[in-house]
Amino acid sequence: MTAVSKAVCGHPAVARAMLGGGAAGLAEARLSNVKRLRQAGVTCPITLIRTPMLSEVGDVVQLCDASYNTEISVIAGLAAAALLQNKVHDIFLMVEMGDRREGIVPQELGHIGQHVMDTPGVTLKGIGANFACLSGIAPTAAKMQALTALANDVEGQCGPFLQTVSGGNSANLDWAFGARTTGRINDLRLGEAILLGVDPISGDQIGGLMQGAFTLVVEVIEVDAKYVRRSESCTDPKMARIRHITDTSEARRIILAIGHQDTDAAGLSMPVGATVCGTTSDHLIIGTEDTALCVGSELRLQMNYSALMRAMAAPDVQTSLRHDRQGPRAHDANGSNKHLALV
């Protein structure tokens, strides 16, 4: 298991908890997060899972043990940077197997693998694939068998034993825990499952994992005496999904100090009796039956993966850790706005 810490922006305490839970290493998508981890003293292997930008190859080699790649020009840049730093950088080739996000078409995999083998400064360590991300294509036993076959083919063409064959992300857990053989697949890149305890395809809780590790605490800044009724003027079909509320005289209009700048409003789970009416850059308007809410009250909300990622990256969301043995109880790494907190 390679633990993906990008959703928490490489928060060192969360990363250490992942490693303490048994992860063999960390995976990140942004170099700024890797720098944060290294500066905090995290020395475990870190792999960059987004294809490196050509402009950052020097930092990639300096900070990361390995990277996932799809472009020959980027691999050449990494090799040159590695030679300058007297290092050998590990390369994993990402294969396109239906998700359509990134990857090398299988027919070209052997050719590019041989190019890596012939280039000083880099070494071919493995291949990987991605599922259920851009196109929602779920991993299947057939696709895992195909990835195993590709690993065998690359070894036959290029020579070296592939140390890692990474089958995908949290969407692969159902397959991984099944009765079928895993073939050559010996690594999964897990983030959402660890952090939120849910299956990213179905949204169902994964047995044995907790769903309440993160809570977004938001302050009420306005309580409207007017009651909310069904919106008749909403013409944007994308907004209709989150503006529809129950047509009841018991629903009061409440404004929370949070908006699009802070999180993904569509990824927030409202308390019982509350419904999202709309969101702007700085305001979240809800209809609620809770008569106890007043200005200054705090509302505690659960988040999906998208909402968590944006909240952790938002400059005005304060991050507070509970029962953290690695450092102070509260960490204000992203800002000091008292109206928003991610606990």
Q: What is the CATH class of the largest domain? A: Alpha Beta
CATH level 3 topology of the largest domain:
TIM Barrel
Number of strands: 17
Give the radius of gyration.
23 Å
Mean pLDDT: 88
Measured between the Cα atoms of the first and last residue, the distance is: 25 Å
- Total count of helical runs of at least 4 residues: 10
CATH architectural designation of the largest domain = Alpha-Beta Barrel
Percentage of residues in helical conformation = 25-40%
Task: List unreliable stretches of 5+ residues.
Answer: 230-237, 239-249, 327-338
Order of helices and strands: EHEHEHEHEHEHEHEHEHEEEEEHEEE
Strand content: 15-25%
User: Tell me about the biggest sheet?
Assistant: 9 strands, mixed
The CATH superfamily of the largest domain is known as Alanine racemase
Structural class: alpha/beta
Overall geometry = elongated
Protein model, in words:
- This protein has ten helices and 17 strands.
- It has helices at residues 12-20, 31-39, 57-63, 72-84, 106-117, 141-158, 173-176, 192-196, 237-243, 305-313; strands at residues 2-4, 25-28, 46-48, 66-69, 89-95, 122-129, 164-166, 189-190, 216-227, 252-256, 268-269, 274-279, 284-288, 298-303, 318-320, 330-331, 340-342.
- The strands form two sheets. Strands 9, 10, 11, 12, 13, 14, 15, 16 and 17 form a nine-stranded mixed beta sheet that branches. An eight-stranded parallel beta sheet has the order 7-6-5-4-3-2-1-8.
- Helix 3 (57-63) crosses helix 4 (72-84) and helix 5 (106-117) runs parallel beside helix 6.
